[in-house]
Design brief:
alpha/beta; 8 strands; eight-stranded parallel sheet; Arginase, Chain A; globular; binds manganese (II) ion
Length: 290
């Protein structure tokens, strides 16, 4: 039986909101309860330059250099025969983990991306310049050479979204033009099994990486995330119970080789309500994968 091992990724350079880099520390005791800890990536960066080369994209060098450190750790964990579970950090975390899984398994990996956001802007279309809105494009290889990492790229046909609700036109156009499979947040409740089976029958790869953004859960049930989709206007996201069902099904029905959990912001978790919910999710991961 494979063993899940945690890699902490206190990453903050992909998103301007303070806090997600502290998630690993806040969750350390919970993580220790269920899993062994492999390592924590050193994300310290001496005096980083927000904008280099007149670019509008923020912190390219820190994000890419730290991602390469994570890449090595994830690759090593796969070599040993374990299941790396990466605890972010903002969602730029998955740049290193997905590219390591793709290289280790020579491209034979589907990414299931559970998120309200599409995170598929490229270096030309990003409105904010925050790299946590671009990681999938970096893994697909549709950004310029400053974002190069790994050899094997993610194929559009090997990307599946669960829980989408919030994206810009350039993103949904790319998704539609490339026939990327996605399920909106509002279609999931009550259809969990059907959706998972549909994804399962569409998969052509042997391995699956799950990238789980906690903002895929609605604000009412999980508010402590970097960028919540405003539920006053949108009422977006899955209920916590729906998200748990989805996670359980993914972990039980797919050949999961690696996984991230990202965007938890403990500074917004005043009563530790969300921390308790993360603990429930960790328990599901433990029970399903080991
Ligand atoms: Mn995300």
């Amino acid at each position: 039986m494979k063993k899940v091992e945690v890699i902490g990724m206190p990453m903050k350079y992909g998103c301007p909101v303070e806090g997600a880099d502290k998630a690993y520390d806040y969750l350390k005791n919970n993580l220790n309860k269920y899993f062994s800890i492999k390592s924590v990536i050193d994300t310290y960066y001496d005096n980083p330059n927000m904008y280099e080369d007149n670019t509008k994209i923020k912190y390219i060098a820190p994000v890419m250099n730290i991602s390469k450190k994570l890449y090595k750790e994830v690759y090593n964990s796969l070599e040993i025969g374990n299941i790396p579970f990466i605890v972010g950090g903002d969602h730029s975390t998955c740049i290193g983990s997905i590219s390591a899984a793709l290289d280790y398994y020579k491209g034979d990996v589907t990414v299931i991306y559970v998120d309200q956001h599409a995170d598929i802007h490229n270096d030309k279309t990003t409105p904010s310049g925050n790299i946590h809105g671009m990681p999938l494009s970096i893994c697909i290889g549709r950004c310029d050479s400053r974002f190069d990492i790994g050899n094997y790229k993610l194929k559009n046909s090997n990307l599946k979204y669960i829980g989408l609700s919030n994206y810009e036109k350039e993103e949904i156009d790319y998704i539609n033009e490339n026939n990327i499979m996605y399920f909106n947040d509002y279609e999931i409740e009550g259809n969990e099994e059907k959706i998972i089976d549909e994804i399962l029958s569409s998969i052509h790869t042997k391995y699956v990486h799950i990238s789980f953004d906690l903002d895929s859960i609605c604000d009412n049930d999980f508010h402590a995330v970097n960028v919540s989709v405003d539920n006053l206007y949108h009422n977006g996201g899955m209920k916590f119970n729906t998200a748990k069902k989805i996670l359980k099904l993914l972990l039980n029905k797919f050949n999961v080789c690696s996984m991230d959990m990202v965007e938890y912001n403990p500074l917004l978790d005043e009563n530790y309500e969300c921390k308790e919910k993360v603990d429930e999710l960790l328990n599901i991961i433990k029970e399903s994968l080991e």
